[in-house]
Amino acid sequence: MEDTKNLLFEKDGKLPALKYSLPMALQHLVAMIVGCVTPAIIISATAGLSNPMRILLIQSSLVCAAVSTLLQLFGVTRFCGARLPVIMGVSFAYLATMQSVASEFGIAEIFGAQLIGGIVAIVIGIFAKQLHKLFPPLITGTVVFTIGLSLYPTAISYMAGGAGSADFGSWQNWLISIFTLVCVTTLNHFGKGMLKLSSILIGIAAGYILSSFFGMVDFSPIRTASVFALPEFAPFGIRFEFSSSLAFSVLFAINAVQAIGDMSATTVGGMNREPSGDELRGGIIGFGLSNLLSSLFGGLPNATYSQNVGIVSSTKVVNRRVLALTALMLLAAGLVPKFSALLTTIPQCVFGGATVSVFASIAMTGMKLVAMQPMSYRNTSIVGLSAALGMGVSMVSESLSQFPEWVTMVFASSPVVIAAIVAIILNIILPRDEEGTE
């Protein structure tokens, strides 16, 4: 019995008995499922998709996340896939830029840009060791912090009911969103075990029940959705647009480096060793290839999930087959349109109340990465100027109105691009002092 349980702590061991492996797989699923579907729900609203297409976008994103996870867990060649216990899912890092692309051009341009970004990530994976030096924790932390800040307006808009909704800003929307936020925050700070881990999921469920009493839930999409359906090839089309592709290329470069950090945290926290060069290279190439494939089948951009890295580090459960069980459950959910349809019935104010804490945690994760470096005058200048220029230009996008349209799209649609470029340049050119030496 004990030997069977110990298989949880072996990376390449057999799948342990279900009574040991299933709870751990569910723990990973609960930690990431909301984050995986929320961007698809937000983008479908931004793009004005019909209800069947909204369901398809959620379905495709779930299936592609499952396939991406399996690719990273087991690889397809010795050059592709980290073969480490990591979970992949749709990333919030691309959300602000995807919203701009969807509203300015259309959803097909997102998948064209994602395809290009996947190719960029593959190239970065080939040269991962050399390029890693350009992205110390100070730089990645600044970018992650800026991503979190850039998502706050989206959360507040959703808390008020969603921009353009007839009841935007109503007291009912604010009541439900704040109730959801209180549930999430209470469980985060006072809950333990699965209650704490599933705080967002439980908070959404509580907000959903409350909103149903206000007549804000429409179950008709569930009745009309089919029971089983396979993803389609290029269901939303694929179109290439220069500024969108350039913005996504920068984002994919940043996320490739963040994936290196997540894989390193996985091996150090769960396996007491640093990742090998082959594991890092395979992981980044796998990250690029999985996004290239996702773009072809209508799945939104994915990345490694830091919350699942945290679970691996805290539990020391590194058995890849346990995480594969999580991926299979994710795949099953994606193949059932009725499940995706259920998610589309959740009112926007509920998502707002749940995601505002997620976006706050993203920003604070960035601050933790920044704080890993000494807060010298040099380092605070890099962080402060990068965030100020990135956020400032995106908030006053008309400041670039005299430039070509592609410049506005690349640099004003999301603060992340400017913040990343400024941080990298300043880190290279500013002189290092003793206190700021990394």
From TrEMBL:
One Pfam short name: Xan_ur_permease
Keyword annotations: Membrane, Transmembrane, Transmembrane helix, Transport
Keyword Glycoprotein: no
InterPro entries: NCS2 (IPR006043), Xan_ur_permease (IPR006042)
UniProt membrane topology term: Multi-pass membrane protein
Domain of life, source organism: Bacteria
UniProt record similarity statement: Belongs to the nucleobase:cation symporter-2 (NCS2) (TC 2.A.40) family.
The protein's name in its UniProt record: Purine/pyrimidine permease
